[in-house]
Amino acid sequence: xxxxxxxxxxxxxxxxxxxxxxxxxxxxxxxxxxxxxxxxxxxxxxxxxxxxxxxxxxxxxxxxxxxxxxxxxxxxxxxxxxxxxxxxxxxxxxxxxxxxxxxxxxxxxxxxxxxxxxxxxxxxxxxxxxxxxxxxxxxxxxxxxxxxxxxxxxxxxxxxxxxxxxxxxxxxxxxxxxxxxxxxxxxxxxxxxxxxxxxxxxxxxxxxxxxxxxxxxxxxxxxxxxxxxxxxxxxxxxxxxxxxxxxxxxxxxxxxxxxxxxxxxxxxxxxxxxxxxxxxxxxxxxxxxxxxxxxxxxxxxxxxxxxxxxxxxxxxxxxxxxxxxxxxxxxxxxxxxxxxxxxxxxxxxxxxxxxxxxxxxxxxxxxxxxxxxxxxxxxxxxxxxxxxxxxxxxxxxxxxxxxxxxxxxxxxxxxxxxxxxxxxxxxxxxxxxxxxxxxxxxxxxxxxxxxxxxxxxxxxxxxxxxxxxxxxxxxxxxxxxxxxxxxxxxxxxxxxxxxxxxxxxxxxx
Length: 509
Description:
By secondary structure, this protein is of the alpha+beta class. It is globular. The protein has 3 domains: 4-107 and 149-264 and 450-457, 2-Layer Sandwich (Nucleotidyltransferase, domain 5); 108-148, no CATH class; 322-444 and 476-503, Nucleotidyltransferase, domain 5, CATH 3.30.420.40. The protein is built from 16 helices and 23 strands. Strands 17-18-16-15-21-22-23 form a 7-stranded mixed sheet. Strands 3-2-1-5-14-13 form a 6-stranded mixed sheet, with helices on both faces.
């Protein structure tokens, strides 16, 4: 009998659960689309009651599909979208608000005020001077300190400002803060476990990767009350058991989604690159046990900490990717994803037409949370299909720009990048990313890379594999996309797109 694992992936677009055995065979699966709420301009939320009910349903459906019960499972592994958080009452469990997701940009005014404040400017200057004297990477990172909407820190400040009741309950020590992983573990263990895993904690914006603790600067300067924060634990911490699905199941591993995708892509070595193209697009570089402090507008992250061994990673994020395709569907521009192939195969080029994808602002290197989305270059001959192709090209250009930013700060000659995520199933996008980056784009046969990363994490913790080298034999490559001779043309157009993107900057002042 092979060991069986529940691999639960809570993303921004879907909740997905796979039952996978130790031979990496999918025995059962289930998924549901995440219901996002848009309460006002810039707001993106999730109803926690709806989310809990659907998480339970998805796991139960996957067990049913696998024709097993929870008693047949070795353990459960979880990965979640990062930066999405909630606060709730310690005594009753009642939440103060919906989940504020990582795509929410209502804190952009707070971010601008803080980034331009005397305090932050002083921190940057002092850190720059200290770095010149000490050459300590911690001070180099401090010299580039910048808050972003994707960080939970800024959105938590926004929540504390908008909901005075939370401050009142903090005075009574009756508030708990948690990113999605914290809240879910708390619910699954019926309040027995209140922790956050280190990979999710590192993406909040108030975690110190150098001390591996909540940053004292955030707690003191931003006045984030430490009493509401959960303890930070390793990814293979003993999270407890859950009997929500019947017989008790051990929760053995918890990871942030991009960390799980790094593991699933088998990017185990320093300088390995992976690109996840899902709701957003995220380029991650494995930096081993070193913290990369050179990236402008980016934040050092913890990839994972397993068996007391830590791996760091750096990241170039693009907030809008698959969300653009969902928008095209919701707006009626396309009926289904298959329509995109017809649009791509049309001979007509979209002229000098560009689309700027800034529903959640523009990340590195532009770093503008107040940028607007829009088309530029529309002419009388512009058709709907040309506009939709420009939207798809914007995904490629945004990824190419993020890669160039990461490459510029890295003293390494990259050759390939592993790609995963729903949008990576589009041959046109993968081919054009190869052209935009001059990298071999490697697509694995196993599509559910994030859940595969959960399985690897669980298996390593449970002794199914001794080390990560044992996992190399499991990798099967479906296709490698190489530059097809159109790199120069693609990169020239990407440069023009960058100019177009700058026209949409600071629109929401």
